[in-house]
Predict the structure.
Amino acid sequence: MAHAHGPIKQISDIRPGDHLCCIYSTDEEHREVLTRFLLDGLKNHEKVFYIVDARTAETIMGYLKDAGLDVDSYLRTGQFSILTVSDSYMKDGVFDPDRMIALLSTETENALQEGYSALRVTGEMSWALGGLPGSERLIEYEHKLNTFFPGSRCVAVCQYDRRRFDQDILLHVLMTHPFAFIGEHLYENFYFTPPEEFLYPGREKTTLDRWISNLKDRKEAEEALRRSEERFRALFDHMLEGFALCRMIYDEGGRPVDWEYLEVNPAFGRLTGLRDIAGKKVSEAIPGTKEQTPEIFEIYGRVATTGRPETFDVFFTPLRIWLHISVSCPQKGYFVAVFQDITSQKESEESLRKSEETFRSYIENAPDGIFLADAEGNYLMVNEAACAITGYSKTELVGKNIRDLIPPGDQQIAFAHFRQVKEEGQATGETRYVTKSGEVRYWLVKAVRIDDQRLLGFTSDITDRKMMESEIRSLNTVLEQKVEERTHALADTNVALEEEITRRREMEDQIRAALNEKTLLLREVHHRVKNNLQIIISLSNLQLRQIEDPKMRQVMAETQNRVRAMALVHEKLYKSETLSDIDLAEYVRFLTSQLFAYYETDSRKVTLKTEIGKITLPINTAIPLGLIINELVSNALKHAFPDGRAGSLFILARREEKTINLVVEDTGIGIPADLEWRNTQSLGLKLVISLVNQLDGTIDLDRTRGTAFTMVLKVKE
């Protein structure tokens, strides 16, 4: 049952609309849970009722007083009340679930009208053991509460003493509460059965399906947790950054004096040279740390105490490397330090400083004109080549703006290039410029953005080239005319080609639609066949209830298993991607798990081992093969291990082109030596031999060690 406010993990997560039970075994567990439940309700400004029975009002008030609560003030205001069984459950002398729910509804409305946020109720249920009139309707009452609580502003905990209640009552209690305190721990109850399912005539099957689903979900959750832990451990062991989880050690005055390494990863050892230090104090692993690096000691202590993360760089003298350390606090008194080798970065910074010096030297001696400008276009630095191009001296150019060198007719072009550099990081363009003597010439400008505040431009005079381009343009005009004529001819060809492509795409769409329709039809056929087989199983269940003869009941039950084996094939097919083949290993796993459950075989005594490669089979082979495995495994579970005998069951399958080699072997008591198994009256073995013949196969029996059937079967498409 989903919780409307998110998952309940602790008492503070409980909200109005929740219905919980508390099954406790000791008075200490009762005190711990109920004290926290009552205190949380009073803190949330809820009206709180406690219904006493086995305990007195003084006992409950003692719980709260020991927790530091001024109980009398809450009793005076009416926010907290202690009721008796005669005030509540047995108000009219007879317990009536509908009247009790009506009382809860009325008291909830009263609490809301009085200004409280909700009504919080908890009651001791031991009164139901006294044989009071109507007490036999207790479980009916618990189920009906699940139709009242959702959407209401009421929350309740029903108390059950495990030392006093029978186990069957407690089982029903679990089925009627979405959430449960077991001892002092709070659980989301996957045994809870909603009232609409509990009242359904076939609730045994519904409950079984739910429990089986819960078992599968539990298994999947455990497997997901295991994979998550493996991924975390793999990440922890292979991460490039060093990792250390430490516990800070304080003196009596609360000052950090040492820390203990709880866990470190391999990268920590590679970065620091410190190995096998888990469980050691830093004073043992690195003597003199506090005196040699007091700033590190101070930072670690501050993070472990305040909980605020910090980062810093430090030069680690033993290995002569720079480390970047990020420190965080997962829990007060503990800290996590993540180490990253930044020696290369530090060396790069030093190299960058030297590069800037080289860069300035390059600018000064470059053959092209170079201008360094700020974000507004004001020149900050120019080289000698820039002075030669423009005719200005360095003193004259520095302080000028880019627009001062651009004639009015080219201002917009120059400004567009300037914006492109600021927005995109670089730009290349041609424009005119004016020299100091007033001559208008052309230059090519390549500019890049160094950072948000500086731009760097490279210029070269291209006046001679521009004159040549004018002559070339006239020649290009003639070429463009020829190209246009050729383009028109190609356009006509492209139209015809596009029409042919369109026609083919339409045909592909039609084929694809037909294929999708066929796939849906096949999936529906398999689904319906599987459902029809399930109906046969359900009808045979009804017939089983009317058969008293044990042998006939056994025959009917074994027939059901055979039908289930066939139904499982169709179920796997309509869930598969291909709709034509099933995964044999997965099919055998599901089939044998059903048989072990049916024969109530203890898998700790009779172990199942399978050796099945990646084999997929068509339906014409999968159904008879599944029935063969069903019969041989059923025979082994029925006859091979009498009186709780331990042993093992082994299934091997290998495919070789068009055949399947199948071995079903057990280490049980074996088939009697005088039994003519090929001519036996056993329906199971007759069916096996018939199915082997159906698959054009052979079958042999080895009685040397238990029972081993070896078959070679032909795969039929």
User: Anything to note?
Assistant: The first strand starts at residue 19 and ends at 24. Residues 463-544 form the longest helix (82 residues). Residues 487 and 493 are 10 Å apart (CA to CA). The mean pLDDT is 83.
